[in-house]
């Protein structure tokens, strides 16, 4: 009962706090845009920025609001196949939605579909790294006070879930087990293949955008 109420409150407060965040970040995002437009005078200038600079985009928060209950449902369903995370603190899913915005160019329906398909990877990879994260926290004296020492800590939507799964596969392969070695090799082939496909698609898409902009 208590856990259910906590989850409900987290979902309710999330949409409210999200609207505050949009209002707070929008002036900064607009200010950067205005300065760049004024100073560059039509010249092209690429700059790398952290995700808060695009947090004013409404698509991020609309997608996050939809994905929040989906992530809770997926977490419960996946508990039978290895998930050990109930993502209350990570319900905002900030490791997912900014990347979805960039990849889909703000197409909300695609963001929601891709996010729904990707969230299980984040949950399962977060479960896998929980023992290591907990051991590290205890080793540096950062384990939360008042928390049972048998509890594990982790991050439900930490970036790079496939890389974490790959690292786990490599770690198993170092034991010398043939099945683990073959599994890691298959994972490597899959990872390189999907990266090559994604790179090809992004180059093709950018060429189309450049052609349409002329």
From TrEMBL:
Segments traversing the membrane: 13-37, 58-78, 84-104, 111-133, 180-198
Keywords linked to the UniProt accession: Cell membrane, Membrane, Phosphotransferase system, Sugar transport, Transferase, Transmembrane, Transmembrane helix, Transport
InterPro entries xrefs: EIIC-GAT, PTS_sugar-sp_permease
A cellular component annotation (GO) from this entry: plasma membrane
UniProt superkingdom: Bacteria
Transcription regulation keyword on record: no
Compartments in which it is found: Cell membrane
GO biological process: phosphoenolpyruvate-dependent sugar phosphotransferase system
A Gene Ontology molecular function term of the record: transferase activity
Enzyme Commission number(s) of this protein: 2.7.1.69
Chief place of localization: membrane
Topology of the protein relative to the lipid bilayer: Multi-pass membrane protein
Enzyme class: transferase
PANTHER family in alphabetical order: PTS SYSTEM GALACTITOL-SPECIFIC EIIC COMPONENT (PTHR37324)
Designated name of the protein: PTS system, galactose-specific IIC component
């Amino acid at each position: 009962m208590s856990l259910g109420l906590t989850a409900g409150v987290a979902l309710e407060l999330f949409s409210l706090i999200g609207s505050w965040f949009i209002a707070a970040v929008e002036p900064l995002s607009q200010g950067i845009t205005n300065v760049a437009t004024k100073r560059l005078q039509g010249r092209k200038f690429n700059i790398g920025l952290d995700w808060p600079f695009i947090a004013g985009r409404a698509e991020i928060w609309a997608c996050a609001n939809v994905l929040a209950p989906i992530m809770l449902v997926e977490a419960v369903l996946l508990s039978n196949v290895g998930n050990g995370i109930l993502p209350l603190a990570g319900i905002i899913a900030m490791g997912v939605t900014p990347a979805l915005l960039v990849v889909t160019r703000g197409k909300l329906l695609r963001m929601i579909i891709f996010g729904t398909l990707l969230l299980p990877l984040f949950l399962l990879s977060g479960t896998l790294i929980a023992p290591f994260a907990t051991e590290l926290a205890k080793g540096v004296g950062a384990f939360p006070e008042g928390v049972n020492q048998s509890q594990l800590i982790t991050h439900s939507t930490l970036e790079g879930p496939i890389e974490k799964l790959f690292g786990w596969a490599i770690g198993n392969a170092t034991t010398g087990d043939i099945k683990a070695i073959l599994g890691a090799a298959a994972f490597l082939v899959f990872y390189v293949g999907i990266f090559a496909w994604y790179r090809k698609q992004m180059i093709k898409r950018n060429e189309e955008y450049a052609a349409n902009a002329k």
